[in-house]
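SEQUENCE WITH STRUCTURE:
===
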Amino acid sequence: MSNQYFSGINYSLGNEDTTLEYELCRQHKPKVTVAIAGSGGRSLPLLAFSDKLFAVDVSKEQLALTELRALSYQHLDHYSFLKFWGYPPFGEYDYSNYRRVILNELPLTHQTRSYFHEVFGPINYASILYLGKWERTFQILSKGLRLLLGRDYGRILSFHSLEDQKAYYDHEFPMAQWKAVLFLLGNKSVFNALLYKGDFVKKSLTESYFQFYFDAFESLFKHQLARRSFFVNLCFFGKINHEDGNPLEVRATTFNEMKPRLQNLEKDLMYINQDILGGLATIDQQHGPGGVDFLSISDVPSYFTGDLEKNFLTKIRPSLRSGGLVSVRYYLNVLEPSLEGFQDVTDQYRDLITRECVQMYRIKIYKAV
């Protein structure tokens, strides 16, 4: 993986809907869960139904962000949490002084506190929710989208009924302009220029970039309310525009489910600053092999090359209990790894996958046998 792309704060809000993994943990109640940390939004909710969570990431900055999120979950009520991070309905207000006070009060490690004072300082303690490279890229893309879509810009997010939204999409949506948007903005050259700096993931899918993005958005628009997708909000507005768009991990019901399990973080949450294979090796060494019940590795395998493309499941199998699950999100590069020691059980979770609110990933679920 590229050191240039996977450095600094890459994701501050997050690029995945963790509902799938959250519901998998609700169903299977894993004792030990290992997850790519990301912004913390994709990993911390899994602790609600797990006895222990190992948050693994190659980026120290992402682990620091996960620590900040974890402690704000632990010490703040829901209202204060939303205000500190700048989620709707608090995104348009200035809570700089409040944010500075909270940052000093949370029991962060000295290193993490110092780091975030350096992050917040230059922006006068404004919200860092959209400070990540990924989020800033979509703020730029949203401006191009606004220009190209014209007067119907954002109307797809105005519906409270899925049937009304589908009728609008089928009969009134500015399809010609939308296709122009996807053709002009949804391609390797644009993403390399804005985000990946030449390290954009290789594409193994046979369809064009245009067709891939068109199909993904069509799935979003036809299977769920666009206004409830934080990703669609980000694409159209460069931010979450209203409370309906808040991601799963900050909704009141989820927050209240997570809260009791986040009271003993020192015991139940461990941070590992390594790649996923190195992190699993560390866990095996410290706690014994074969102890992981659920492994959530984001889209990391999309960036594997060489031997890992074929054998990454084989390499992680010794860390898993029999019956343990692995969730993988393939982005453009869908691998066909050796399934020795695994069963592909993706179809058992098709409904959850269809309702995932980003739809830019081909999701696979593997079960250790």
About this structure: Residues 24 and 358 are 17 Å apart (CA to CA). The chain has 16 helices and seven strands. The longest strand covers residues 320-330.
